[in-house]
Structure formats: C-alpha cells, structure tokens
Amino acid sequence: MNTVIKELVVGLWELYGVRQIYGIQAGYRGFYSREPVQLSPKMMHGWHKRGGTVLETSRGGFDLNKIVDAIQHHGFNQESWYPLVLELCSEILGQVYIIGGDGTMRGALEIFNEIQQRKLHVGVVGIPKTVDNDVGIIDRSFGLQTAVEMAQQAISAAHVEAESAVNAIGLVKLMGRSTGQIAFHATLSSRDVDCCLIPETEFYLEGKGGLFEFLEDRLKENGHAVVVVTEGAGQDMIPRTDAQKEERDESGNSVFLDVGSWMKSELKKWWDRDHPDELFTVKYIDPTHMIRAVPANATDNLYCTLLAHSSVHGVMAGYTGFVCGPINGNYAYIPLEEVAQAKHEVNTRDHKWTWVRSVTNQPDFGKS
Ligand SMILES: Nc1ncnc2c1ncn2[C@@H]1O[C@H](COP(=O)(O)OP(=O)(O)OP(=O)(O)O)[C@@H](O)[C@H]1O
Ligand SMILES: O=P(O)(O)OC[C@H]1O[C@](O)(CO)[C@@H](O)[C@@H]1O
After folding, report:
1. Could you name the domain of life of the organism this protein comes from (predicted)?
2. If you measure from the C-alpha of residue 111 to the centroid of ligand 1, how many angstroms do you get, rounded to a whole number?
3. Which residue of 78, 106, 124, 333 is most buried, as measured by CB atoms within 10 A?
C-alpha cells in the first residue's frame, strides 16, 4: 500500500509537475474527520520499505455525501492547483485515487457516481489492494505474493514442529474471508501441506471420506501431518450464539469465529475419543496479521509501481471511473462498475485446484 501511495506521488510530481497532492488518513472516514496530509516525494522517502499503511486505514465510516462534500470543500476539483495539468486534460482537473479491497471498490463506485451526478471535474481511480486477492477481473491484487511468501514460513514452521513430535498435526490458519487464494498458493508452493481447506470447498470431519479418516491414515503413514485452513472456511460448522450470528464489523462484514482454535479443539476431542491412550499433539500457528504487516516483496513492489504510474497516466489522459490492473499480464483500465461487482474466488473445478489435490492427496469431501 505504501509503495502505491509513494509512486502515485512520485508520478504526479515528477512526470506531471503536480505540486498539490494530499493523503487522506484513516480510510473513508478520513475525508471528513481528518485534515488531509500534504504529500511530496521527499517526505515519502523509504515508504516502500514499510509494512502496513503509513496513512492509516479503518473500516466503516462511509458517508457518501460527507465524502463528496469534502472533495468539493478541499478543492480536489479546484482549477488553480494544476496549471500544468490544465493544458493536458481540461476536462478532469481534480483527481481522487482510492486504494483498497472489494468493499473499497464498491465505495469508490458510489463516490464516482455522485461526482458525476454533481458534475464535478474530478477523476476517480480505483487501485485494488487486498492480500485476499478477492478483487475480480484483474490477474491478482498486489500483496498476495508477499502474503504467500510469509504464509510459507508459517507452514514450514508447522511442518518442522509436527515432524518433531509423536502423532503431531501442524495446523496453520491463513487470511481469506471469502476466498482461499493465499492458502491455495501457499499450499502449492510450500509442498509441506497435507490438507488445504478454503471457503470455496465444504468439508466434514467425521465418517468415511472425512478429515479425521484422512488424518488417521497420514499419521499412521508419516507420524505427522500439516493442515492449512483459511479463516473463512468451515464457518457454518462452528457453533455460535444468535448474537454471534448477527455480529458485523464496522464495514458490515460478518464477524468470523476462529476456525483455527475450533479445529484444534475438534482434533483433540477426536483423538481422545478414538485413541485414548496414544500420544497426540496439535501445533497451532496463526500468522494471520503477520502475513499482511510485512513490507511488500520485490514482485509486489514492482507491481505497485506499475499500477500507480499506469493509474496516473490514465487519469491524466482524461479517463475516470476506472480501475487499473493487469488482465492476462496486460495493464488495462477497467470500468469501476465492472470491478466493484466482480469476485475472484478459487475455482475448485479447474486444473489448478486439481494440482492442490494431487500435491496433498487430500479428500475431495464428496465434491469433485
Ligand atoms: N457497498 C459499499 N458501498 C460503499 N462503501 C462500502 C461498501 N462496502 C464497503 N464499503 C466501505 O469500504 C471500506 C472498506 O470496506 P471493507 O472494510 O469491507 O474492506 P475491503 O475494502 O473489502 O478490504 P479487505 O479486503 O481488507 O476487507 C469501508 O469503509 C466500508 O465502509
Ligand atoms: O485487521 P482487520 O481489519 O480485521 O482485517 C482482517 C481482514 O482483512 C483481510 O486481511 C483482507 O485484507 C482479511 O483477510 C481479514 O479477515
């Protein structure tokens, strides 16, 4: 995220002579609850080597009228700030670059439509960012590769721990609310995983073809096993109160229960029931936020730079209401409306998911 912001500023400053560039802090609420922060390449030195987001972020706080009023009030559509840009794109005088996941893109679409409704001279650009890689149409979101690299470290640690104990299961929970992209890629690349559980595939624990039967065989054969579970997987199997069913985060997303802790408990109950006198242990690793908090790796940093500069060139060329991203490796300007509606999930019926099942030999849990 920091690399994208830095490169947006560098591109605007160095390539187009723009000098009035501001950062909005704390997510959408920052438009109306915080003063914008003036940005320049000099003050952003080293941002691309920092994890998280220096401008802070938050969930919720989306008030369309307050946000667009702020854009008008702060003069993001004023003509006086862009003397050089005036000659380049007389139609689009102000610019708003909105960086975030699928929810952010839906918000960006609402902002774009309101700006069009008010006939403001403001270009709106969406830049997809989420480790979950759940933004549709584009090949991938930046951050995914970095998250997969970190996830591999957790999986490797789980494998070492499981190998080092008697009848041990290494259990790793990874990020991914609606899609198991991180777990999917980390499973294929780490090669230490015996079972990868993602939101896109149902699974069951007991009985023939279930997880327990599979793990029983693995423990007999190898003495250890590694299970990777995505935070959004198995949510419908975890008992919850009526209040928990209704709980939402500030953005309105349902709040998940901890599938990792639940699975650890279920594994222990299973073994105590079926093997009461045998040693057994579950080594549970939850690197959830760690895989998101690290600085972008080289691949993602390069991607961020290209995304940021392509976005600047697009809006300077007069485009608005678009998302910049690669489609089959070619950078494209995609209508915000298309991206805001599209989801990117693991297709469990295609060849790539078959690779996972061939690498792990895990059960198909009754779904091919
Ligand atoms: N349909 C929508 N219309 C307007 N604003 C939205 C919509 N959905 C989400 N938002 C706003 O977009 C912001 C980000 O949404 P959310 O918290 O769901 O994260 P996200 O962008 O999906 O990223 P992540 O992948 O990290 O969850 C929040 O401020 C939320 O209020
Ligand atoms: O720290 P927060 O705001 O709860 O975000 C966690 C969520 O954000 C994501 O990392 C997506 O960015 C999800 O995978 C995860 O559930």
Report:
1. Eukaryota
2. 13
3. 124
